[in-house]
Write a structure and sequence with these properties.
heterodimer; A: alpha/beta; six-stranded mixed beta sheet; about 35% helix; globular; B: mainly alpha; two-stranded antiparallel ribbon; about 5% strand; elongated
């Protein structure tokens, strides 16, 4: 008998006509000590499936038309809360995606983990403290004693996720459900967390249900894989079999969906569009009554490069390395020092009004397609705004045609222009954001992680779109990303940044084939093989 | 979502032309039954009170006299017109005049033949007189009809409340927007100013004012406005502080959009829900303040129809309970109706309801198969700023 047996599980949201079938008759089983990866794109129902194992869905809005969930032989479906509470966090526990919001910001690490021990084990005082220290050691948190009194904001993303894992393991569960446990983390940290989960699984002989959209992770840690789409498991089997011999068309589509291809050959003689010479952005740290400046946060510290027409400079680095700040400084949306030249003009220090005509030629696309479109404006209003501002198009009719053309260019149906952003999927919204930038016919575009919030197959489409637009209009891109695969597919030149400084800079080919700096090498290993090498070099 | 499949948004029988978002808002409003019916009741009462002159007036609506038609409610006729002795305005309640007219014509009275300031001389009992068929809610201690005073008092209260709410919201939103958007020294200075300003005692100022000028509707409105605008500032300021760093605002800035446009086109619509939540309280607060000023005798000039004055009379004449009870009931019903309406308005503008429901609406259009939803997981995207309008993802990429 398997530890977890899910049979014919269905989940519906709402009732009556507007019923949404999120999960439709899903069955799977997990053995003790086994890792099952539930793979699928957003909206496939994988998280809903996982949440319904512990009956954590928003009932009664969500309901189960059919199905049974057995944990260790005990049926969980339809059990009263009292019974379920004894299972949750005890026999089965969960790790969530966002470590910042999953921890209570007002509780110390000790209280955070201690609460579970108190609840399920009735431990008190000294016993709790001892067990918490033991758990922190188990998840490899250094200097555990002094971390007991830390609050979540004093920990790094990786440490927070480790605390989350410690909480999940506090009562030695038989089943650990990890819902995208590393999506919000940097690649090097992601590799460390995954190897930690793997190690703990072997040591504690847990069953792990790993929910993810990232196939690289699956390949590395899962024993078996279940592929979900549209609320159905379309294929299920051992990891090796799925990756080498996928039966279902959707699985093959998913496997083929990685952003790939290479940018066209760089033309060394193309005219320079943007150049930066020793650009620095320092934020002063002020202390005391008189706001005396006691030091600076060096967000960007002396970076020089040049972007030519039709070429892309990729900026790679982990969160907090100053990538985005660099992009904002180049667009003169943040004040900086050092030389910034745009098509031969030195634009450093220009006033907002003087910059305004140039805004048309330099545009930005943001990471989050949900936040970057005003929810209360229709698509045509969003795209049209720039046209009106820069007096492009004589009248409303002509502007409408320009908006339609811009939408067509990014592969959207122009008839959609009177809809509102919420009616679109993430990928479509990102296309709208790109259309907003492209409608002005810019020469230089800063792409600030444009693919990070999207599903893998959508990422590939957006990368193709960007490459296509670049070839057609000779655009210069500054491509900011932490995802090395996407950077490789687009960039001619790569800058590796860390703490505001350049670690390594050179042609993409050289950086990806023969990285020189140790930091670059560990980034590559983490991104392409998900192995954590030289973790001590990254601990800071 | 208990709405019929195909139905046009109609309000008071008028077909409304709305974009999808506003249409969804309308249905949200409709779905709040209590608010929807309150709006109808209130609208009827308010429209009736706007035509108070035709409902409660000491002048007849129409007079037919010697083959000629007169409209005393609109035009002032001297008594001589009807064969009287004086060239002054006709007193149609004068039995002598009544007789003169009815001899050679007829009089059509409004349902209540008294205005708010008509002193009824032929009561028969000492004022305040209890309810009779003639005076439905009795008369007050100056022998004036209570129903007439309530109709006029209701009108002036609502008009005062609405005007004050609209004006103080405009000022408050502008002040909050400027503070929140620019932050820094502007914010700091303005906040300190508001702290001092809100410390000024309003009531004393009103009492001082009353000794200098005769306070009328506009004086009171102006003076109240000086202090009531601060109610909304903090909420709007907080919304602007939050929104000014959201991606869509930064995107607009990268397009080269100016500050004023960003404030009013991009941020303000997102701050409206918070403002709307506060508006019913401002509205009711304004009405209550006017009433309490009248109650204390510092409000509208003596003789004005006012609910506060009615309450004061009720207190002074405990042996005439119809005064206090009618005053209380009118106030209670009016304030409750307004709160119910604004509750429904707030529901209508709640982005969670609006956009979540729209997403459900939109989903089946885009694909025939049932779209998946990540449910609570939709709120957990990487590096997604805390935004109010997080709708579940409507449909998968189909490009």
């Amino acid at each position: 008998m398997s530890l977890v047996e899910v049979e014919n599980l269905s989940v519906n949201f709402g009732s009556g006509e507007r019923d949404i079938e999120a999960v439709r008759g899903v069955s799977f089983a997990i053995d003790k000590g086994e890792t099952l990866a539930l793979v699928g794109e957003s909206g496939s129902g994988k998280s809903v499936t996982a949440l319904s194992i512990l009956q954590l869905l928003p009932y009664p809005k969500a309901w189960h038309p059919s199905g049974s969930v057995k944990l260790d032989g005990q049926e969980l479906m339809g059990q009263p809360d009292r019974v379920l509470r004894r299972v949750r966090g005890n026999k089965a526990s969960m790790i969530f995606q966002e470590p910042m919001t999953s921890l209570n910001p007002l509780h110390t690490v000790e209280r955070q983990i201690g609460e579970i021990l108190q609840l399920h084990r009735g431990m008190t005082g000294g016993a709790i403290r001892e067990r918490v220290l033991e758990l922190l050691a188990l998840v490899h948190i250094d200097d555990a004693e002094s971390r007991l009194k830390s609050y979540p904001h004093q920990l790094s993303g990786g440490q927070r996720q480790r605390v989350m894992i410690a909480m999940a393991l506090a009562n030695e569960p038989d089943l650990l459900i990890a819902d995208e446990p590393t999506t919000a983390l940097d690649v090097t940290v992601q590799a460390q967390i995954l190897s930690l989960i793997k190690e703990l699984q072997v040591r504690l002989k847990m069953a792990v249900l790993l929910i993810t959209h990232d196939l690289t992770i699956v390949r590395r840690v899962a024993d078996r894989v279940a592929v979900m789409t549209d609320g159905l498991i379309v294929e299920q089997g051992p990891t090796e079999a799925i990756f080498t011999d996928a039966q279902h068309a959707y699985t093959r589509h998913l496997l083929a969906a990685e952003p790939k291809g290479a940018p066209p050959e760089a033309d060394e003689t193309a005219t320079s569009v943007v150049s930066a010479a020793d650009v620095k952005v320092h934020f002063p740290i002020q202390r005391g009554l008189l706001k005396r400046t006691v030091g600076h946060v060096k967000a960007v510290d002396g970076i020089s490069f040049e972007i030519r027409e039709g070429q892309t400079v990729g900026v790679v680095g982990e969160s907090g390395s100053g990538k985005t700040t660099l992009g904002m400084a180049l667009l003169r949306l943040l004040s900086s020092t050092g030389g910034i030249r745009f098509r031969g003009q030195d634009i450093q220090g220009w006033s907002w009004n003087k910059m305004r005509p140039l805004r048309r030629e330099m545009q930005i696309v943001f990471q989050d397609p949900y936040g970057s479109l005003s929810p209360r404006m229709s698509v045509s209003q969003i795209i049209e705004e720039g046209l009106i501002l820069h007096k492009i198009g004589r009248d409303a009719g002509e502007r409408r045609e320009l908006v339609a053309a811009a939408l067509k260019e990014v592969g959207l149906d122009p008839s959609m222009q009177d809809r509102y952003p919420h009616e679109f999927s993430g990928g479509q919204r990102q296309r709208i954001a790109i259309a907003r930038a492209m409608a002005l016919k810019p020469r230089f575009v800063v792409l600030d992680e444009p693919t990070s919030a999207l599903d893998m197959s959508v990422q590939a489409q957006i990368v193709d779109l960007l490459r296509d637009l670049q070839a057609r209009y000779g655009l210069a891109y500054l491509f900011i990303s932490h995802d090395l695969r996407v950077v490789r597919a687009l960039s001619h030149e790569v800058i590796v940044m860390r703490q505001g400084k350049v670690v390594e800079q050179g042609t993409a080919e050289r950086i990806f084939t023969a990285p020189e700096a140790a930091y670059t090498r560990s980034l590559m290993a983490a991104a392409f093989e998900i192995t954590a090498i030289e973790p001590d070099a990254l601990a800071s | 979502m208990a709405r019929p499949a195909v139905q046009e948004p109609r309000l008071f029988g008028f077909r409304l032309r709305l974009n999808p978002v506003n249409e969804r808002r309308f249905w949200n409003f409709r779905n709040n039954k209590r608010g929807y019916w309150s709006l109808h009741i209130f609208a009827v009462l308010f429209v009736l009170s706007l035509f108070a002159e035709f409902i409660a007036n000491e002048r007849p609506l129409v007079v037919r006299f010697e083959g000629q038609t007169y409209f005393p409610v609109l035009v002032d006729y001297p008594e001589t017109e009807f064969g009287g002795f004086f060239p002054t305005s006709t007193d149609y309640h004068d039995p002598f005049v009544k007789e003169l007219i009815e001899e050679r014509g007829w009089i059509l009275w409004p349902p209540i033949p008294y205005s708010y300031n008509t002193v009824i001389r032929d009561l028969g009992v000492p004022a305040p007189s209890p309810p009779t068929a003639q005076n439905w809610l009795g008369t007050d201690d100056q022998a004036r009809d209570v129903v007439a005073r309530i109709i006029y008092g209701f009108r002036i209260s609502v008009l005062f409340g609405l005007t004050l709410t609209v004006l103080s919201s405009i000022v408050g939103i502008m002040a909050g927007a400027v503070q929140g958007y620019f932050g820094g020294w502007v914010d700091l200075g303005f906040q300190r100013f508001m702290e001092i300003w809100s410390g000024l005692p309003t009531l004393y100022l009103l009492i001082i004012l009353a000794s200098v000028v005769t306070p009328n509707f506009w004086w009171l409105l102006g003076l109240m406005l000086l202090f009531s605008w601060m109610a909304l500032v903090d909420v709007v300021r907080a919304e602007f502080l939050r929104a000014r760093n959201l991606d869509f605002v930064r995107a607009a800035r990268a397009l080269g959009v100016g500050n004023v446009t960003i404030m009013f086109r991009h941020i303000l619509p997102n701050a409206m829900v918070a403002s709307l939540t506060f508006m019913p309280f401002i509205l009711n607060g304004s009405i209550t303040t006017l009433t309490s000023l009248d109650f204390l005798g510092f409000g509208l000039p003596p003789g004005s129809p006012s609910l506060g004055e009615l309450l004061a009379q009720g207190r002074n004449n405990l042996h005439a309970p119809w005064l206090g009870i009618s005053g209380f009931l009118v106030l209670a019903v009016m304030l409750s109706l307004l709160i119910f309406i604004f509750e429904a308005v707030r529901d209508a503008f709640d982005p969670r309801k609006t956009f979540a429901a729209l997403a459900l609406d939109a989903a089946p259009k885009e694909q025939t198969r049932a779209p998946g939803t990540e449910g609570p997981a939709a709120a957990r995207r990487p590096a997604r700023p805390d935004q109010p309008d997080s709708a579940p993802e409507p449909a998968k990429e189909r490009a």
